[in-house]
Every structure is written in structure tokens, then in C-alpha cells.
Write a structure and sequence with these properties.
Organism: Massilia glaciei
Strand content: 15-25%
Keywords: Hydrolase, Lipid degradation, Lipid metabolism, Signal
Helix content: 10-25%
Shape: globular
Protein name: Dienelactone hydrolase
CATH superfamily of the largest domain: Alpha/Beta hydrolase fold, catalytic domain
Distance between the termini: 41 Å
GO molecular function: 1-alkyl-2-acetylglycerophosphocholine esterase activity
GO biological process, one term: lipid catabolic process
Number of helices: 10
Number of strands: 12
Order of helices and strands: HEHEEEEEHEHEHHEHEHEHHE
Radius of gyration: 21 Å
Length: 455
């Protein structure tokens, strides 16, 4: 049975997922303010590509998964149950498409029995549009944070699908809670199920790719898979990529050992063979008090990795948590994009008008950064990273292997009185010492760190 220490150990982890405000730009045929549409000051690779986008929502049943709530309810007599997951799929569609009505969600009511207010985020994808035939595209899985929902990063999913990816996002359906005991059950379940959910959905979709009669499966490239995890999604993604948990970690006190063991370092479960790109946005589990991995387990990850974090993130501890993860992933080439003066809420969709009180605003927003700016920068760098490692596009390296490390130190000199207008830096000529893909004077407040395997 879960011990009470779990709730107290994890008490600071209530704010582990957050959407952001959209660009407010228009897109032909779409509802206004679809967040996948980049604003005029967005970096070069942000926004939508050339392909029409379709979206489907399906259910998958993962059999015999750990169920802590059932274990408590049954007095320990029952421990597993079949787990139903709702999965949203975005994909290149046979165009043209009619945009769907949007993505419905509810403001999370963390710690309350009352449901939050409902809201909707605009879409450019066509609901149940026919997939484009004739080509296969890399598969990218998106996994949200604690208390989040599957469409909370639709700005990124639609952008990737329009550029030639099949994107799947899981509704993990985290259990609600009203007190310390139910919080412990909910968060403990997340720790046991995030990686299991990710692996199950990837395996299921790769099986579909083997069927000639499956319209979605027929456009999935089963040899090229990427995994994006935000916060607790990043916690699970590291395990899915081969970093088994340290069973001696304080994070797992009270977790039944039989359920934990398959996820621990040294277990026979390997990362999916086709996993060639890993994106961790504000990943949980590196902070000293809840350090979930050993150095040896982190070093086992082989997929090229992009970490994105705010340097003021006090939920996952940038200095001693995220930076420790970045240093520890020594078995692979990795990048770390840092938002200076950003906290934890750097990953998701528009802040809804329904987030009217300060508690809701603190859940969704950042104190300093414009939300559309965060989304556009995420689209830019994640798109470049996936294109490089899932599509083999070596030209994307110039957008990632950046010098100087601090964007504020970059230089693009021009004569007094002249202007570069809306032109993007190219990494040559007068912008040779500037970050490629950004307009002059607009690459500020960012850092890009890079390490090679073995370092």
C-alpha cells in the first residue's frame, strides 16, 4: 500500500504542465488565433509547413496495467486492470481540408472536486480527413505533464504534421485528487504509467505501420520514431529511451516494488529500436530531492536528445536537476535550449480566457516571456532537431550547433541608419556571428548548450 511519504515527498509538484497563448495570426480557412500559426516575429522554422493536416482521436486499451487506486480499494487483493487511453493523431492529409471546430479542454481544478471551466483552442487540422497516400513519415509521440491533456500542445503537433510527420499525443487521464492521500495515489500512478503508456502507444502504432490496409499505418515510417515529453512526460520519456529508474531513489518510496521493477535500471526492457530523437521539455526527476536515475542509467540513453528548460524553473530545479540530466546523458549527442528568466510553463497551448483567477493564471502563464514567442521558438528548434535526426536533413545542424552559446552575445553589425528588415540570419556574411533563423535584434534571452557523446 502507498505510504504517506509519497505525498509529502512530491508535494511541490502540483504545477507540472502548462499551455501558452497563441500567436494570434490568421490561417486560410481556419478559426482565428490557431496557435500553430506563427506570428511575424517568429524564427524561420516556426509555424506551418506546406501539407494539409488531418486529426483523429482514437482509443487504445493497454491490458493489465498497474492500478494503485484499485489496489487500495481492494485492500491489496487486486493490483492490475486494463487501461484505456485516448490518443490524438495528427498527420499529412489529402487536401484540401476543412478545419475542425477546435480542441476542447477544461481548466485543471487541481486539488478540487469541482471540474474547471471548459475552453476551446482553435485548429487548422481537418477532423477525420483522409491521410495523404504515397509516402511514409516519421512517427512522433507527445506525452504531457501531470494533470495535462493530449491536445495541450496542438500548436506543435499541427506544425510538425504540416511538415511531414505523423504525431500522436496521449491523454494520460491522470487521476484527480482532493487531499494528500489521493494526490499520492495520483502522482504515484503517473510515475508507474507514463513510460508504460508511451511504449504501448509507440508499439501499437508501429504494428499498424505493418498493415497495408491501415490508412494511418500506411503513412508511418516504422524505422524513424521521435518522443517528446513535457515535465512528467519527460520523466517517462527518459525511461522509455533506456534510462531505467533507480529503485533506491526517494521518489519511489511507497511504490509497490513488483510494479516498479520492470522500469528500473538493469531490467530487460530496451528502448524502441527506431527511437532516434528524444525531446525533454522541463523534465521532472533530476532534482536532488527526487532524483530518479543513477549516472549509469542516464548514460544508457543512445537517442540524440534536445532538452528545453527555463533557467528559473523551480518545479524541476534547472540548476541541480535539469542541468544534471543534461550532463549525465553522456552516451549520446545532446543539446539544451535555455530560456533565461523562464520558469516551468514553457510547453503548451494558449492560455484560455477561462483561466480567470491567479491560481489558474499561475498554472498556465510565465511571468516574463510572451507565450506566442515561446511556442514559436519551440516549433523552430524542435522542428530542426527532428528534421536532422528523423529525416537525416544535415542542413538543420546550423540551427542547432549555435555559437555563441548565449544569444545575447551574438552580433550582426550594420552601418548606422540601415536595417535588415524581416530577414533571418544565415550564419554567413554580416550575420556570420549571429544565430541563424532569427531576425536581427530578436535572438535574445536564449542559450543553446551542446555536448558530444562521452563528454
Amino acid at each position: 500500500m502507498l505510504r504517506s511519504t509519497l505525498a509529502s515527498t512530491l508535494a511541490r509538484c502540483l504545477l507540472l504542465t502548462a499551455p501558452l497563448i497563441p500567436a494570434g495570426a490568421s490561417y486560410a480557412g481556419a478559426m482565428p488565433a490557431a496557435p500553430s500559426v506563427a506570428s511575424i516575429d517568429a524564427p524561420q522554422l516556426a509555424g506551418l509547413g506546406k501539407l494539409p493536416v488531418g486529426v483523429q482521436s482514437i482509443s487504445m486499451v493497454s491490458p493489465r496495467q498497474p492500478d494503485l487506486a484499485l489496489m487500495v480499494k481492494s485492500g491489496g487483493n487486486e493490483f492490475v486492470s486494463d487501461r484505456t487511453l485516448r490518443v490524438h493523431l495528427w498527420y499529412p492529409a489529402k487536401g484540401p481540408v476543412t478545419p475542425s471546430a477546435g480542441y476542447a479542454a477544461m481548466v485543471p481544478a487541481m486539488g478540487s472536486a469541482k471540474p474547471g471551466a471548459s475552453f476551446e483552442v482553435a485548429a487548422v487540422a481537418g477532423r477525420d480527413a483522409a491521410p495523404a497516400a504515397g509516402a511514409r513519415y516519421p512517427l512522433v509521440l507527445i506525452s504531457h505533464g501531470f494533470g495535462g491533456w493530449g491536445t495541450m500542445m496542438s500548436y506543435l503537433a499541427e506544425s510538425l504534421a504540416s511538415k511531414g510527420y505523423v504525431v500522436a499525443a496521449i491523454d494520460h487521464a491522470d487521476q484527480s485528487f482532493t487531499d494528500g492521500a489521493t494526490f499520492g495515489l495520483s502522482f504515484g500512478s503517473v510515475m508507474l504509467l507514463r513510460s508504460r503508456d508511451q511504449r504501448f502507444v509507440i508499439d501499437t502504432l508501429l504494428q499498424r505501420a505493418a498493415s497495408k490496409d491501415d490508412a494511418i499505418g500506411a503513412i508511418i515510417d516504422a524505422k524513424s520514431v521521435g518522443l517528446i515529453g513535457y515535465s512528467m512526460g519527460g520523466f517517462g520519456a527518459l525511461a522509455s529511451a533506456g534510462a531505467g529508474y533507480d529503485k533506491a531513489s526517494a521518489s519511489f518510496k511507497g511504490i509497490p516494488e513488483p510494479a516498479l521493477l520492470p522500469l528500473t535500471f538493469g531490467s530487460p526492457q530496451a528502448a524502441p529500436a527506431a527511437l532516434n530523437a528524444l525531446v525533454l521539455i522541463a523534465p521532472w526527476g533530476g532534482q536532488v530531492a527526487n532524483r530518479a536515475w543513477s549516472p549509469a542509467s542516464l548514460a544508457a540513453v543512445r537517442a540524440p536528445t534536445l532538452i528545453i528548460s527555463g533557467d528559473q524553473d523551480d518545479i524541476v530545479d534547472y540548476k541541480d536537476g535539469v542541468s544534471w540530466l543534461f550532463a549525465g546523458l553522456s552516451g549520446t549527442r545532446r543539446h539544451m535550449l535555455v530560456y533565461q528568466n523562464a520558469r516551468h510553463n514553457i510547453a503548451g497551448n494558449p492560455t484560455p480566457a477561462a483561466a480567470a483567477d491567479f491560481g489558474a493564471r499561475e498554472y498556465f502563464d510565465e511571468p516574463v516571456w510572451r507565450r506566442d514567442r515561446l511556442m514559436a521558438i519551440n516549433q523552430h528548434f524542435i522542428g530542426a532537431f527532428l528534421d536532422q535526426h528523423l529525416k537525416g536533413d544535415r542542413s538543420m545542424a546550423k540551427y542547432l550547433d549555435l555559437s555563441p552559446v548565449r544569444a545575447n552575445d551574438a552580433a550582426w553589425p550594420l552601418p548606422f541608419g540601415s536595417s535588415s528588415g524581416a530577414a533571418f540570419g544565415t550564419g554567413s556574411g554580416t550575420s556570420a556571428a549571429y544565430w541563424p533563423g532569427f531576425q536581427r535584434r530578436w535572438a535574445v534571452g536564449l542559450e543553446m548548450h551542446r555536448r558530444e557523446p562521452g563528454k
